[in-house]
Amino acid sequence: MTVRLRAALYLRVSTARQAEHDVSIPDQKRQGEAYCLSRGYQHVETYVEPGASATNDRRPEFQRMIEAGTAKPAPFDVVVVHSFSRFFRDHFELEFYVRRLAKNGVKLLSITQEMGDDPMHVMMRQVMALFDEYQSKENAKHVLRALKENARQGFWNGALPPIGYRIVAAEQRGAKIKKKLEIDPLHADTVRLIYRLTLEGDGMSGPLGVKKVVSYLNTRRIFTRDGGRWGIGQVHRILTRTTYVGRHEFNKRSKTRKINPVGDVIVVEVPGIIDQGTFDAVQVHLRSRNPKVTPARVVSGPTLLTGICFCADCGGAMTLRTGKGGRYRYYTCSIKARQGESGCKGRSIPMDKLDNLIAGHIEERLLQPERLEEVLATVLDRRQERAERRREHIAELNKRAAETDLRLKRLYDAIESGVADLDDPALKERIAGLKAIRDQAQADAERAQAMTESSSQQAVTPQMVRKFARTARSRMRIDGGGYRRDHLRALAQRVEVADKEVRIMGSKSDLLRTLAAGPGVGPATPGVRSSVLKWRTGRDSNPRWLLHHARFPSVCLKPLGHLS
Question: pTM of the entire structure?
Answer without folding.
Answer: 0.38
